[in-house]
Design goal:
Blueprint lengths: L8 E5 L7 H16 L3 E5 L5 H12 L5 E3 L5 H10 L5 E5 L17 H7 L3 E4 L2 H11 L6 E3 L17 E5 L11 H7 L7 E5 L4 H11 L6 E5 L3 H10 L2 E4 L8 H8 L4 E4 L4 H4 L6 E4 L4 H13 L1 H18 L2 H12 L10
Parallel strand pairs: 1-2, 1-3, 3-4, 4-5, 5-6, 7-8, 7-10, 8-9, 10-11, 11-12
Length: 346
């Protein structure tokens, strides 16, 4: 259907409710389809009763073009759709670690590489890093992929705080050690006037509190757990910079959220963070194993307000140009009508 307008889109996902990155991505897809005026049938596996989900998929698949699959766990449905609609164009959204074939998180099922090659028309993926990881894990040609970056809402630019608070926002589950939040705690003894705010919950929260006590910096580390949207907005407004030296980001939407609020960022030189952040322009990228280098990058932004403001402004400009809801909608339109170019990551 190159260049033709979609008759109707079927979008199948896991969920569009909640605060997770995939849920927010799904809501943005649904909102963008509405903005484009495309008739859409949505089916969310975690939200619809099993029979209702099946009915919505089966009723939506007839006459839909293209068909959007929101998660790799839904690949078996793509095979069923291919059997029902042999000529239908099927597009899979891939987000990050769930598509890397990481045995500690989600190993490759033996049947998935062949299904991706023969059932799915395109894989829309958030970053070149994730594309490389997925192509290697599933033995896919990179021509299968199209880059489809994430997006954030753009609030009014806030007035920056005068303090020296470093903010990080992350899941603190046991499998999230590669986000290296502990390195931020370990950097504090080298930054005697800095404070660290860690927003997020999970088993690692208690571990980081214990580490702060061991290092004698517990009075400068706040670990409030999960917070409301209002409290999160306040934390961004009170921070001088955002830091997450994660080496496992499939895209790094948290950096966009910080830039949208005018904050400079510090991230890892590994993973997609090193792809999204322009080192020395809108933030710094470092090797998270080097706590001294991390402390140096944090200290430069804490001690040089003009540098921090300049980098925060550059990051916000990057979001305005490439990562707003309007950009997401344009990219979705280009994905639906494949003769249009996508825009996005620089």
């Amino acid at each position: 259907m190159r260049g033709e307008r979609a008759r109707r889109v079927l979008f199948i996902g896991l969920s569009a409710r909640g605060h997770g990155g995939i849920q927010r991505f799904n809501r943005r897809v649904i909102a963008s389809l509405a903005t484009l005026g495309v008739p859409t049938v949505t089916a969310m596996r975690a939200e619809d009763a099993p029979m209702r989900f099946a009915r919505r998929v089966l009723s939506g698949v007839l006459g839909a073009e293209p068909i959007l699959i929101g998660h790799i766990n839904l690949l078996p449905l793509a095979l069923l759709i291919r059997l029902l609609r042999p000529r239908a164009r099927i597009i899979l959204f891939a987000h990050g670690i769930e598509s890397w074939g990481d045995p500690a998180y989600r190993p490759v099922r033996w049947w998935e590489p062949a299904m991706l090659r023969h059932v799915v028309h395109r894989v829309a993926i958030v970053s070149r890093y994730s594309m490389s990881r997925m192509a290697g894990a599933f033995a896919l040609d990179e021509g299968t992929f199209v880059l489809f970056p994430n997006a954030v809402d753009l609030p009014d630019a806030p007035v920056r705080a005068e303090g020296e608070t470093i903010l990080t926002v992350a899941r603190l589950q046991a499998g999230e050690r590669e986000k290296h939040v502990d390195k931020l705690v370990r950097a504090l003894p080298l930054l005697p006037t800095a404070r660290l705010m860690v927003i997020g919950d999970g088993p690692l929260r208690a571990e980081y509190r214990t580490l702060a006590v061991q290092l004698g910096v517990e009075a400068r580390v706040a670990l409030p757990g999960a917070v409301s949207d209002i409290a999160l907005a306040r934390a961004y407004a009170e921070a001088r910079l955002f830091a997450l030296p994660s080496s496992k980001e499939g895209f790094g939407i948290v950096y966009l959220e910080a830039w949208a609020r005018g904050l400079p960022v510090v991230g890892s030189c590994f993973g997609a963070a090193g792809e999204v952040i322009s080192d020395g322009v809108d933030g710094f990228t470092i090797d998270p194993a080097d706590v001294g280098a991390l402390a140096h990058a944090l200290g430069r932004l804490l001690n040089d307000r003009r540098l921090a403001d300049r980098m925060g402004a550059a990051g916000r400009l990057k979001v305005e140009r490439h990562y707003t809801g309007a950009a997401f909608t344009r990219n979705l339109e280009a994905l639906l009508y494949s003769d249009m170019p996508l825009t996005g990551m620089t």
